[in-house]
Each structure stands twice: as structure tokens, then as C-alpha cells.
């Protein structure tokens, strides 16, 4: 068995995976607590909650599994696999994994949170064999990125080709939801609200080619925050939610138009679990592969699978 850990900004994730079959034998994903009316957490508060929730999850794991039978641990240690990518919350998982690795005398492997999202999406999207080259969309509260991915020798080589230039989609969704009086994070509640509206309109957002330092294209969406906030109290919340998701879907459609049509597009991140965005994009593209909704959101399954690949590569068992 291999243990996977991920301590992202808003979810503590622990999963136990059978190395031979890839089957999940234990899984626990716990949202961090955010005060009502707040739009997020400080990193120090997130770290504190992760430490306690890792202990609780591990206690639940040890009630059904003898951890002396673990063969390896895999953990996320950074948002992205690039120099300078860092968030303190990931240290909670790394320190927990390091202590357990030393105590049990088993290998520990580290991967980026983004790599975990990609692998979870690949494993649950139904694509089958992982293609050598594909596009990745990582859409969450902390990331809105369009990726050119090369998967060779069971290692991801990821190049950024597009991104938001200000807010992330998840941030926009949560800020509008909190303004409506919803509890943070707001994506699921807004998704349900939007499903009760038949609105078809959206706000146009232009793409800016070659404006981002490390990307081929970018776009600004901070203006959308003011626009949607201005509608609250004047338009039904269900309609606002629907127009918001229509707008995000339309932005994504415009971005995808520049992609090579014969390459698969793997979509992950919490925003990718939205049913309106999925249905909209699936009308226009045949090569889209979405992670299952529960594995679009933050999880440790992809991290565990990456560790499994590492085991076989290095003959660590």
C-alpha cells in the first residue's frame, strides 16, 4: 500500500492506495474551516488546521489498517513544479510524511499539487492510456492555468501557455458567493443555484495575446467581480450564478479555440467540477476529458498514483 497526502489551501486529503491495483482502500478529504462571511484563510491558520486534521485522518486510517504494511508515502510539497512555487500550508503534509517515513523506514516521494491534479484527472476521466502530449487546464481558487504537457518516462514536463492576469476563477466564484451570503467555499451552492436558471447570456472578456510574462495568452477577470456584485439585489441570485458560469465557460471556449484539435485536453481543479461549464464545453469539443467531480476538487489520489509510478520506476519495493 502507498499513502498519499495533500494539504492544499482549503482541503486536508489522505488516501491509501493499493500499489498493484490502484484501488482506494481508505480516503478522507476534510475542508478547512473558514469563518462565515470571510473570503479565505491565512496560511498560518490553514497550516494549523491541516496539522490537526492530518492527525484525525491518520487515527481513522490506523483503526482499519496496520501502517507497518505501508511501502511508501507520497505528498504534495508545492503548488507547481517550478522554481519559487511555495505555500506554507504544504509543509504540514511534508512534515507529517517525513516523520512517518523516518519512523517506518520507507521511501517518501514529493510532487506538486498541480501534478497531483493532472494525474487524478487522467486516472478518472476515462481517457485510458495517458497520451505523450496533451493540454491541461487547472481551474481552481488558487490557479487558472492552461498547460502544454509532455508525459515521458512517467514524468510530467509542464509549460505554461495561458493564464489569468489577476483573479482566478475560483476566487471570482467565491467572492460573488460570499457577497450573496453563502458560506465559503461557494462553488457547490452556486452550481445548484445556477441549475435553477435558464439564462443564456454571458459577459464578453477579451484575450490578450503575449501579455503575460510566461504565457502565450492571458485575460483579466477582476472587472467581472464588480459587474456581478452590481447585480446582487437587482437580479435573482439564480440568474446571476448562471450568467457567471456561462461567462467562465465562454472564456474557456475562446481559449480552447487556439489549441491543436487533435490533442486531448485534460481538465481538473475545483471549478472543473461545475456541471454547467462541463455541459457547455462538451457541446463544442470532442477531445475534452474531465476528472470525476470528486477528483476535480483537491484530493490526494493523484499524488498517491504518482508515488506508485515512482516506485515502479525506481524499484523502490
From TrEMBL:
Gene3D superfamilies named in the record: 3.30.420.40
Question: Which InterPro entries does the protein's record reference?
Answer: ATPase_NBD, Gcp-like_dom, KAE1/TsaD
Q: Does the keyword Oxidoreductase apply?
A: no
Q: Which UniProt keywords apply?
A: Acyltransferase, Metal-binding, Transferase, tRNA processing
Per UniProt, residues of the Gcp-like domain are 49-304
Q: Which SUPFAM superfamilies match?
A: Actin-like ATPase domain
Q: Entry's Pfam families?
A: TsaD
Enzymatic reactions: L-threonylcarbamoyladenylate + adenosine(37) in tRNA = N(6)-L-threonylcarbamoyladenosine(37) in tRNA + AMP + H(+)
Domain of life of the organism encoding this protein? Bacteria
EC category name: transferase
EC number per UniProt? 2.3.1.234
User: What is the protein name stated in its UniProt record?
Assistant: N(6)-L-threonylcarbamoyladenine synthase
- Organism classification: Bacteria, Bacillati, Bacillota, Clostridia, Eubacteriales
Amino acid at each position: 500500500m502507498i499513502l498519499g497526502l495533500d494539504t492544499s489551501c482549503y482541503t486536508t486529503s489522505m488516501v491509501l492506495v493499493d500499489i498493484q491495483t490502484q484501488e482506494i482502500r481508505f480516503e478522507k478529504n476534510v475542508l478547512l474551516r473558514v469563518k462565515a462571511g470571510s473570503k479565505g484563510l491565512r496560511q498560518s491558520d490553514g497550516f494549523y488546521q491541516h496539522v490537526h486534521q492530518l492527525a484525525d485522518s491518520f487515527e481513522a486510517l490506523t483503526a482499519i489498517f496496520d501502517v507497518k504494511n505501508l511501502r511508501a508515502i507520497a505528498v504534495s510539497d508545492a503548488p507547481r513544479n517550478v522554481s519559487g512555487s511555495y505555500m506554507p500550508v504544504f509543509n504540514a503534509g511534508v512534515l507529517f510524511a517525513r516523520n512517518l517515513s523516518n519512523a517506518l523506514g520507507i521511501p517518501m516521494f514529493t510532487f506538486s499539487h498541480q501534478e497531483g491534479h493532472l494525474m487524478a484527472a487522467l486516472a478518472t476521466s476515462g481517457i485510458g492510456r495517458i497520451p505523450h502530449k496533451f493540454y491541461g487546464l487547472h481551474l481552481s481558487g488558487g490557479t487558472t492555468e492552461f498547460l502544454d504537457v509532455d508525459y515521458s518516462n512517467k514524468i510530467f514536463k509542464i509549460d505554461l501557455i495561458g493564464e489569468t492576469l489577476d483573479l482566478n476563477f475560483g476566487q471570482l466564484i467565491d467572492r460573488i458567493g460570499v457577497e450573496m451570503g453563502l458560506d465559503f467555499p461557494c462553488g457547490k451552492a452556486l452550481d445548484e443555484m445556477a441549475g435553477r436558471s435558464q439564462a443564456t447570456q454571458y459577459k464578453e472578456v477579451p484575450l490578450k495575446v503575449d501579455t503575460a510574462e510566461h504565457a502565450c495568452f492571458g485575460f483579466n477577470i477582476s472587472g467581472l467581480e464588480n459587474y456581478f456584485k452590481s447585480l446582487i439585489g437587482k437580479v435573482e441570485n439564480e440568474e446571476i450564478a448562471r450568467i457567471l458560469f456561462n461567462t467562465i465557460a465562454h472564456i474557456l471556449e475562446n481559449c480552447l479555440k487556439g489549441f491543436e484539435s487533435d490533442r486531448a485536453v485534460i481538465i481538473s481543479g475545483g471549478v472543473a467540477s461545475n456541471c454547467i461549464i462541463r455541459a457547455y464545453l462538451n457541446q463544442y469539443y470532442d477531445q475534452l476529458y474531465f476528472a470525476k467531480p470528486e477528483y476535480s476538487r483537491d484530493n490526494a489520489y493523484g499524488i498517491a498514483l504518482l508515488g506508485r509510478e515512482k516506485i515502479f520506476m525506481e524499484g523502490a519495493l
